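Shift notes (night). Ran Probable protein kinase UbiB while the centrifuge was going.
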Amino acid sequence: MTIASIRRGYQVIKTVLHYGLDELLPSKKTPWYFSLLRHSFFWLRNQHKDKPSAQRLKLAMQELGPVYIKLGQMLSTRRDLLNDEWAEELAMLQDRVPPFDSALAREAIEAELKAPIESLFDNFDETPLASASISQVHTANLKENGAEVVLKVLRPNVEAQVQADLQLMCQAASFLERLLGEGNRLRPAEVIEDYRTTILGELNLNLEALNAIKLRNNFLDSDALYVPYVYEDYCYSRLMVMERVYGIPVSDVEALRAQGTNLKLLAERGVELFFTQVFRDNFFHADMHPGNIFISREHPDNPFYIGMDCGIMGTLNDVDKRYLAENFLAFFNRDYQRIAQLYIESGWVSENTDVLAFEQAVKVVCEPMFNKPLDEISFGHVLLELFRTARQFDIVVQPQLVLLEKTLLYIEGLGRQLYPQLDLWSTAKPFLEQWMSEQVGPKAIFDKVKMKSPYWAEKLPEFPELIYDNLKVGRKLLGTQQQMLDKYLKFQHKAHKSNYFLITSAVLLICGTLLLNQDATLWPSYICLTAGIVLWFTGWRSRPKNRKF
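Came back to this:
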């Protein structure tokens, strides 16, 4: 462990004790050595006793910096783990980080390019356009064609800082895992592992560039989403260069109204974009907070979204997509029994779950929502409530569903902010019904056959040989099985014959012994005993010895 790691560990412990987070651990499960360790830091006291525990956790994460802030933001979406008070408090965490020295940014960019900035770019702006916890953005023009671009570069030593914090988090999670015991609902080690995958993905700008290219290609002909062009030749693990775009931040509703933006159409397109990414492309932007989304300034009557920052993308497998679509449709149709069955069939809850009890719990959650106007029902909160209900029945955490849930909440929140009367149901239900019909209807079967036909056509010439080989193998197997059957029957025949002789000899020996003890003539007893001995010897000699078939 390095000096830097020890220093960072002390800083984390100091912050945890300063906000009294150690008091949140169950005292009955806390081992003696933990209390001893706590008392050894006697000069660090809880300075925020008057604040609720959820607020103390938020303030501590905010003080510890970007890695912990992002962890808190992720946890705020985990309603399957946290109650409303904690989740809503953590949702208020803001990632506000001052920019780092532009000289360091220039040095990092030139290290990746292996050339001076001026040899490839003109008008490089030393003042950053934006600054975040992981990276910083500067503007410039490409020397080859004059195109306006932005250069996104990672902060100096951010990888080492993230790795150090992740190591501390993993150690703390392992301690909590042992403290809470097996079967605990929080599963801290699993949560930190999910977070580790997410944040390490954000540290690779080359991966973000590939994500942006894929998302852009998925919506090349779309009038709903525009993803800036990425200059692949200038993208590296710590540097990404992409087209500079101008738009209005999606959260600036006043500016959107001022230019006459069709907010109803814009809100509906946001919903359609979400379902298209999830169900059509199986590749959705999972970090769609307002800072990453802009609205076009062109043709406000037919507005489109501009998507930025593709560091966190989500995918679902075909099984999850189908179960999710069926789940939503079952909710639309108020079929709570089907919802309960889907959760169990998909493996999201234990197969030992009481279906009737789970169905009743789902009904208690969902039924009151139908008493509200459709534009007041939150689709995202329906999903949250279902996860929260499933939590009582030992839900199995699905990381991909957590990303989906977070994205849906973002999209719905933006839609309602843009157009409060947004009827999410009328937009979503036809899309889901059409998607389901395409998955299980005749068209789906035809498409699958069409997709597989080139492979089958390639293998068709091999069919006669494969059929002949299989028949040959089958005939060989039948011959082998017949030989085994013959051996088995022969063994059984010998066994029965041997048993017959042995049983008969036992009867004759018993009869001979009885006659010998009576006052009768001796020769019948001698005959029985002699015959019994002969039959016993014959049966013993004829017993089968080979039991392998």
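The mean pLDDT is 78. The first strand starts at residue 121 and ends at 122.
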